[in-house]
Amino acid sequence: MDFQGFLKALARRWPTVVVCLVLAVGAALAVTSVSTPVYEAKAQLFVATRTGENSIDLNEGQTFSQARVQSYAEIVRTRQVTAAVVKHLRLRTTPEELASRITAVVPLKTVLIDITVQDTSPRRAARTANAVAQRFSWVVEQLETPKRPVRPLSGPDNRDGETVPVSPVSLGITQEAVAPATPTSPRPLLNLTAGLVGGLLLAAGLVALRETLDTSFKTSEALGAFIALPGLGTIPYDRSAPRQPLVNADGYSKRAEAFRKLRTNLQFSQVDDPPRIIAVTSSVPGEGKTCTAINLALSLAETGVSTCLVDGDLRRPCVAPAFGLVEDAGLTTVLIGQARVEEVMQQVAGGLSVLASGAVPPNPAELLASARMEEVLRQLADLYEVVIIDTAPLLPVADTMGLASLCQGALLVVRAAKTNRDQVRTATESLDRVGVRVLGTVFSMAPVPKGGRYGRYGAYGQYGELPAPRVSATREEEAASAVTPGMDGQ
């Protein structure tokens, strides 16, 4: 997945991004509110050497100080310093705990030592930093003071000419610590920024994980790249489709245009050997196969093609309810010999003939794969130019396998962002095993591009808008271009 595809995935899964951001920012604000403020006080020491007045001695002293100052910084947190400070200030802590709150930093190429102490009280932090600096100076000078040589137990006592050892280094406080006005932690702005960044990273990780685990198809191009079948149409998503599955044949909606394109692509894809009996199926329920079969049949009838729509889903028939037709008499009635095709065929607006499913039988798979079903299909093919059959899903039941083998072609409906690769692969392999010619795929419930226009043909207006009448049109032209009201619904 490239960067552009990842951005599209983030936009598509925006609820996940919003939830992650809210949780991360909420956590950052909660941590900020419950955190105890911590203050830092800093004292600064200067390390000097006691040398002669000539330049050579000064240079040697400077070099000596810079060489030793790094080692001095490590002494700040020793017990020699911290234990005395705890005792002197009567702190309610241990020398080890105090040492954990002390840092000593030597700026590069200097003989300065910055001592920083952290505490929950700003005044106590300043007092502790100054006490640590004073004690640290005394400890270093004591360590650098040469020891007197041990005198023999016997011998003359010549102490009159002895000199007192002096430390070659001297540490002076150049900056005393003062009580800080603001705490160094927590930092609300920094925590909020960290929460935002953390939320985005969490969202990106979750989206990447879901995209990796999600093997459904987001675009018709992805479906075409996965399976070697032509994509005959892309049907946009319409939330009103479950309530209104029929598309107005004379409408200019996105879905109406999509079914017209599907009809045209189907006709041109099989010019040399056009199929007369076409099964419309899907891998699993809920992919829009019934809606596709109904509106494809309506679209074919719209062009004057003699079309028959058969409800071949004998387990969950939906064609007759969509048109408001009689459900009890239909395909099963003909298969068991209780009626002829002509007696149970029903007509709907637009010149479409509909053969309902009839009563639900106990053995739909056997009925649909029977020789009698083959005879009925041949009879329908003699009466109509195209026979569209709405079938049951392929994977849950075996009904469609026997019926599809009697057809001259099949359309496989794949729902956007739901049908996964394994389901599509299994469905196509099942059709191949019984020798069914898969004419192509129909990508249903696809996301609608923003803008809702015909690409660069902006003058055509938005989908769903009727063309504006021409000002110079005559009455005859206006009457000829008037839209005849059709069925409501999708």
TrEMBL record:
<dbReference type="InterPro" id="IPR027417">
    <property type="entry name" value="P-loop_NTPase"/>
</dbReference>
<keyword id="KW-0067">ATP-binding</keyword>
<keyword id="KW-0418">Kinase</keyword>
<keyword id="KW-0812">Transmembrane</keyword>
<dbReference type="Pfam" id="PF13614">
    <property type="entry name" value="AAA_31"/>
</dbReference>
<keyword id="KW-0997">Cell inner membrane</keyword>
<protein>
    <recommendedName>
        <fullName>non-specific protein-tyrosine kinase</fullName>
        <ecNumber>2.7.10.2</ecNumber>
    </recommendedName>
</protein>
<dbReference type="InterPro" id="IPR050445">
    <property type="entry name" value="Bact_polysacc_biosynth/exp"/>
</dbReference>
<keyword id="KW-0472">Membrane</keyword>
<keyword id="KW-0808">Transferase</keyword>
<comment type="similarity">
    <text>Belongs to the CpsC/CapA family.</text>
</comment>
<feature type="domain" description="AAA">
    <location>
        <begin position="276"/>
        <end position="404"/>
    </location>
</feature>
<keyword id="KW-1133">Transmembrane helix</keyword>
<keyword id="KW-1003">Cell membrane</keyword>
<feature type="region of interest" description="Disordered">
    <location>
        <begin position="470"/>
        <end position="490"/>
    </location>
</feature>
<comment type="similarity">
    <text>Belongs to the CpsD/CapB family.</text>
</comment>
<keyword id="KW-0547">Nucleotide-binding</keyword>
<dbReference type="InterPro" id="IPR003856">
    <property type="entry name" value="LPS_length_determ_N"/>
</dbReference>
<dbReference type="Pfam" id="PF02706">
    <property type="entry name" value="Wzz"/>
</dbReference>
<keyword id="KW-0829">Tyrosine-protein kinase</keyword>
<dbReference type="InterPro" id="IPR025669">
    <property type="entry name" value="AAA_dom"/>
</dbReference>
<dbReference type="InterPro" id="IPR005702">
    <property type="entry name" value="Wzc-like_C"/>
</dbReference>
<feature type="domain" description="Polysaccharide chain length determinant N-terminal">
    <location>
        <begin position="1"/>
        <end position="89"/>
    </location>
</feature>
